Amino acid sequence: MIPASYLYKDIYRQTWLDPDLECAWARQEAARLDAIPSLRQSLATLLRRVADILYPAGLASGHS
């Protein structure tokens, strides 16, 4: 869930600081695109840790 304070800040920014919808949309799209690589990296790290737990290095070398 998104805290109400973040929603309020976003609405305030869109309404008062840059009421131009094109500018607000471009800023929101840029923020979304910036978040995607960090989400991918976090997911890759999580999956790597799970794989290390499920398949320790000692077991992998024992299989032919």
Distance between the termini: 47 Å
Percent range of helical residues: over 70%
Share of residues in strands:
under 5%
Outline the low-pLDDT stretches: none
Rg on CA atoms, Å: 21 Å
The SSE string, one letter per element, is HHH
What sort of overall outline do the alpha carbons produce when their principal axes are compared? elongated
Number of β-strand runs: 0
* Total DSSP helices: 3
Largest sheet: none
Query: How confident is the prediction overall: mean pLDDT?
Result: 76
- Structural class call reads mainly alpha
What does this structure look like?
By secondary structure, the protein is mainly α. 84% of the residues lie in helices and 0% in strands. It contains three helices and no strands. The chain has helices at residues 4-17, 21-54, 57-62. It is elongated, with a radius of gyration of 21 Å. The relative contact order is 0.06. The mean pLDDT is 76.
Describe the structure in brief.
With 64 residues, the protein is an all-alpha fold.
Key words describing this protein structure:
about 60 residues; mainly alpha; 3 helices; about 85% helix; about 0% strand; elongated
Secondary structure blueprint with pairings:
Elements lengths: L3 H14 L3 H34 L2 H6 L2
